[in-house]
Design a protein that fits this description.
Layout (H helix, E strand, L loop, with lengths): L4 E5 L3 H16 L4 E5 L3 H4 L4 H4 L6 H8 L5 E5 L11 E5 L8 E5 L13 E3 L3 H9 L5 E3 L5 H9 L5 E5 H6 L8 E2 L14 E6 L3 H11 L2 H20 L4 E11 L5 E12 L5 E9 L3 H20 L5
Parallel strand pairs: 1-2, 1-3, 6-7, 6-8
Antiparallel strand pairs: 3-10, 4-10, 5-8, 5-9, 11-12, 12-13
Helix pairs in contact: 9-10
The structure holds ligand PBG.
Cofactor: dipyrromethane
Subunit structure: Monomer.
Function: Tetrapolymerization of the monopyrrole PBG into the hydroxymethylbilane pre-uroporphyrinogen in several discrete steps.
């Protein structure tokens, strides 16, 4: 293929950094690329994410790709709606960044060191419910804006701390501001956090094969497929905050032989902010089934809770 690949990107520092990693991988493999900026309603609005809805950051980019304005779209995978877009193909899931959430707190403090009543900023119901469940007496408050805006609210003293995706900070070269990378046992990340989705048009098989061969990472793809399948199954059953994390581990298969398997954990908050947890391990080739199994466990646990004690 000798045409220049047009890579669609949003204009934020994070989006530009993400698209650049894709462009660089393609350039290293000998292909010419060009960045095309696409503005999205999510970039222009300051309303809380919970109000403007899923897909605000990704749909304009997907339209530009489907319309042929660009050849490749790069998204933060966790921002994509779970419903597939039949016009597009998920050509590559590059090796995932560290998926953990990160605390950026005043005076270098960790979560456990923040005094009760400390104001912690997050716009994410998933982060808020897990923070509250820790029992540290933190005051969790809503916050929006890009990474710099959120961090400034800590420097300015408006918040004692904010919680951000570690991957976002890594991609914009700001890891040094992190005061604690949160253990997934305390804070399960959003499904697909830290992963990129690299899409092309479904009929553009040349680009699909190129992206797949240059940058697809099968372990990352399997982990994200499981997490997203869990999220999709829960979306059908409830609208609660959801965390999930899967990864390829060395484990024993049914015959007792060492094998690569996929292990995952999920969490969902109930309406009265109790956390329900589930986990399972399965075949790397059946990632989506594994995600649905964990979702079924969570939905059963919720049903058992709703039917009340003693039943
Ligand atoms: N919700 C916005 C968003 N989408 C992707 C990232 C970070 C990068 C990633 O998770 O892959 C962020 C910022 C954040 O959650 O702190």
């Amino acid at each position: 293929m000798n045409k220049t690949l047009r890579i669609g990107t949003r204009g934020s520092a994070l989006a530009m950094a993400q698209s650049s990693t894709v462009a660089e991988a393609l350039e290293r493999a000998g292909y010419a690329t060009e960045m095309v900026r696409v503005s999205t309603p999510g970039d222009r609005s300051q309303a809380p994410i919970t109000e403007i809805g899923v897909g605000v950051f990704t749909s304009a980019l997907r339209e530009a790709l489907a319309n042929g304005e660009v050849d490749v779209a790069v998204h933060s995978f966790k921002d994509l709606p779970t419903a597939p877009d039949p016009r597009l193909s998920l050509a590559a899931v590059p090796a995932r960044e560290d998926p953990r959430d990160a605390l950026v707190a005043r005076d270098g403090l960790t979560l456990g060191e923040l005094p009760p009543g400390s104001a912690v900023g997050t716009g994410s119901p998933r982060r808020a419910s897990q923070l509250e469940a820790l029992g540290f007496g933190l005051e969790v408050r809503g916050i929006r804006g890009n990474v710099d805006t959120r961090m400034r609210k800590v420097t300015d003293g408006e918040f004692d701390a904010v919680v951000l995706a570690r991957a976002g900070l890594a991609r914009v070269g700001r890891l040094e501001v992190i005061t604690e990378s949160l253990d997934p046992l305390q804070m399960l990340p959003a499904p697909a956090q830290g992963a990129l989705a690299v899409e092309c048009r479904v009929e553009d098989v040349d680009t699909e094969h190129l992206l797949q061969s240059v940058m697809d990472d099968s372990a990352s793809r399997a982990a994200v497929a499981a997490e997203r399948a869990m999220l999709a199954a829960l979306e059908a059953g409830c609208s609660a905050p959801v965390g999930a994390l899967a990864g390829v581990v060395e484990d024993l298969d049914e015959d007792g032989r060492v094998a690569q398997r996929l292990s995952m954990r999920g969490v969902v908050a109930t309406d009265d902010n109790e956390l329900l947890r589930a986990s399972a391990t399965g075949e790397t080739t059946a990632a989506e089934q594994l995600g649905r199994d964990v979702a079924d466990q969570l939905l059963d646990a919720r049903a058992a809770l709703l039917s009340g004690p003693g039943q």
